Amino acid sequence: MAISAVADSSGLSPIMQQLRLQQAQRNADQAEVSARSLRQQARVAQQSADRAQEGARSVKVQADQAQSNAGLARQQLVSMESVSQLQTGFDTARQQIAQGLTSLDQPAPVVAPVVNADGQATGTLVNVTA
Q1: Gap between the Cα atoms of 65 and 61, Å rounded
Q2: Tell me, what DSSP letter sits at residue 48?
Q3: Where does the record place the region Disordered (predicted)?
Q4: Domain for residue 85, yes or no?
Q5: Is residue 59 situated within a structural domain?
Q6: CA–CA gap between residue 30 and residue 23 (Å, rounded)
Q7: What is the DSSP-derived secondary structure letter of residue 128?
Q8: Full-model pTM
Q9: Whole-angstrom distance, CA of residue 12 vs CA of residue 20
């Protein structure tokens, strides 16, 4: 309505006014089509951005899980090294104990009696009388 009021006051012929109205209507229609198209492109771009952001979140979760797994693997390595060192210590202690027990199982060496200046054998008898 505002367009026709402007056209009426311009002093143009009715045909020219009609042509201008039709051109203005076409321009408005084209602008509306363009606006709809741009809105659709914006929706598609937003959906794509949302998918990309969700993908980024998913990758971040996977990276965090991988980092956690790496930390656990490092802890397991340290534990295994500690257990290995303990096992080595136990093996060494076991060998030393076995050697000590073996020496206890062996008979005491026979000591030859010592002969004193009088020709008597000493060190074989113990005086138990007091």
Answers
A1: 6
A2: H
A3: 30-58
A4: no
A5: yes
A6: 10
A7: -
A8: 0.47
A9: 10
Domain of residue 40 covers: 2-71
Whether residue 79 contacts residue 85, with contact meaning beta carbons closer than 8 Å, is answered with no
The verdict on residue 127 lying in a domain is: no
- Here the tokens at position 42 are 């914006």
Q: How many structural domains compose the chain?
A: 1
Residue 88 domain flag? no
DSSP line for 65-127: HHHHHHHHHHHHHHHHHHHHHHHHHHHHHHHHHHHHHHHHHSPPPPPPPEE-TTS-EESS---
Residue appearing with tokens 């979760």:
61
